[in-house]
Design goal:
This protein has two domains: about 270 residues, L-amino peptidase D-ALA esterase/amidase (4-Layer Sandwich), CATH 3.60.70.12; about 120 residues, Ubiquitin-like (UB roll) (Roll), CATH 3.10.20.340. About 35% of the residues lie in helices and about 25% in strands. It is α+β, with helices and mostly antiparallel strands. It contains eleven helices and 15 strands. Belongs to the ArgJ family. Pathway: Amino-acid biosynthesis; L-arginine biosynthesis; N(2)-acetyl-L-ornithine from L-glutamate: step 1/4; Amino-acid biosynthesis; L-arginine biosynthesis; L-ornithine and N-acetyl-L-glutamate from L-glutamate and N(2)-acetyl-L-ornithine (cyclic): step 1/1. This is Arginine biosynthesis bifunctional protein ArgJ.
């Protein structure tokens, strides 16, 4: 069966019915780039979220958890960049609560219907006078068009070089349903739940519990399968909001169009995840790893993520070196069963290892392939039906340069 959705190239978080968004510069960043943004829904939206598993969790995560625990619905998400509000003690908690309360009052909704997210430097208190002045102006910057989506996307970036969006449209009960997303992330990326920050909007009718369950499943196949540098942030969060304004019957796992909706959500999240990997700090190329023939999908996931997380594999990709020994070493240390006599490895279409034995290949052809902006690594274990995809990026001199001076 072919894909059951249409890609909307110019779509963004404001494309689904009921959503506005915007962003502005309030002064948290040293440049004049936007650093405060919001997504607002005209009705209470069914909401779900997943969070970092890092034990040091930033204050905004606690506030968002509290908001969602009330009734599983949101009217708005408020986001700042330039400061993570993490490891900031009781004052950080008060600041996150104050941000929630001020936006709620400004748009006329209950406090518990506002989520808060932050990203940036850890361990510094927010300049709340600037944040507060920005929140006061924010409602006037909200738009239901592409400009509103773009302003929001710009407001959530830190070291990102590009904004990250995806959007699809599909039919559910004969009604047009749209799913869109925006994300930020470039460094400190090795999620164990989601990405640095991700936001999904949809006009589908779906309950909060069903949305939460599906979001976790999709996250495990997308955002949890990327890595840039092996670090999991204090602020990772993915939030989804469903306005229910498309007019479809409420989705659940028994609905005839459930799989179509799940497929659309997977596509949006996968495109955002790949964009984060491609935009890794200092990166010059995307590494896409496919592992098949494993004993289980879980085993394949472990191996795929070990490969893309290997500094040696990442360095070889940067140097366009067809060093398959680094790949096989990663396969062998992933902590899952492997038949060491039956492994095939391909770089793109170039077979370099068959049944765990080296295959002569043209080094010049391999060099030309590896100099491209995407490197595909395919590993077949020939042990079972388990399969997984994972995405990462090369490790470059610029990664060290960027992170050696992140605070300055």
């Amino acid at each position: 069966m072919g894909k059951r959705y249409d890609i909307v190239p110019e779509g963004g978080v404001t494309t689904p019915k009921g959503f506005t968004a915007g962003g502005l510069h309030c002064g948290l960043k040293k440049t004049d780039r936007h650093d405060l943004g919001a997504i607002v829904c005209e009705v209470p939206a069914a909401a779900a979220a997943v969070y970092t598993t890092n034990l040091f969790q930033a204050a905004p995560l606690q506030v968002t958890r509290e908001s969602l625990a009330e009734e599983g619905a949101l009217r708005a998400i408020l986001v700042n960049s330039g400061n993570a509000n993490a490891c900031t003690g009781e004052q950080g908690d008060r600041d996150a609560l104050a941000m929630r309360a001020q936006l709620a009052e400004a748009i006329g909704v209950p406090k518990h219907q506002v989520a808060v997210a932050s990203t940036g430097v850890i361990g510094e208190l927010l300049k709340m006078d600037r944040v507060s002045a920005g929140i006061e102006r924010l409602p006037g910057r909200l738009k239901a068009d592409a400009d509103g989506s773009d302003d929001f996307c710009q407001a959530i970036l830190t070291t990102d070089l590009v904004k990250k969006t995806a959007c699809v449209r599909l039919a559910i009960d004969g009604q047009a349903v749209t799913i869109a997303g925006a994300a930020k992330g470039s460094g400190m990326i090795h999620p164990n739940m989601a990405t640095m920050l991700g936001f999904v909007t949809t006009d589908a009718a779906i309950g909060a519990a069903e949305l939460q369950s599906l979001l976790r499943e999709v996250t495990n196949l997308t955002f949890n399968m990327i890595t840039v540098d092996g670090d999991t942030s204090t602020n990772d969060m993915l939030v989804a909001m469903a306005s229910g304004l498309a007019g479809n019957r409420e989705l659940n796992r028994g609905h005839a169009d459930w799989e179509a909706f799940a497929e659309g959500l997977r596509y949006v999240c996968q495109e955002l995840a790949k964009a984060i990997a491609r935009d890794g700090e200092g990166a010059t190329k995307l590494i896409e790893t496919t592992v098949e023939g494993a004993e289980s999908d879980e085993a394949a996931q472990a191996i795929a993520k070990t490969i893309i997380g290997s500094s040696l594999v990442k360095s070889a990709a940067f140097g366009a070196d067809a060093n398959w020994g680094r790949i096989i070493a990663a396969v062998g240390r992933a902590g899952v069963p492997v038949n060491v006599n039956t492994v095939d490895v391909r770089l793109g279409d170039i077979l370099v290892l068959e049944q765990s034995r080296p295959i002569p290949f043209d080094e010049e052809v391999a060099l030309a392939y590896l100099k491209g902006d995407t490197v595909a690594i395919n590993v077949n274990l020939h042990m079972g039906s388990g399969r997984s995809l994972a995405w990462g990026c090369d490790l470059t001199y610029d990664y060290v340069r960027i992170n050696a001076a992140y605070r300055t």
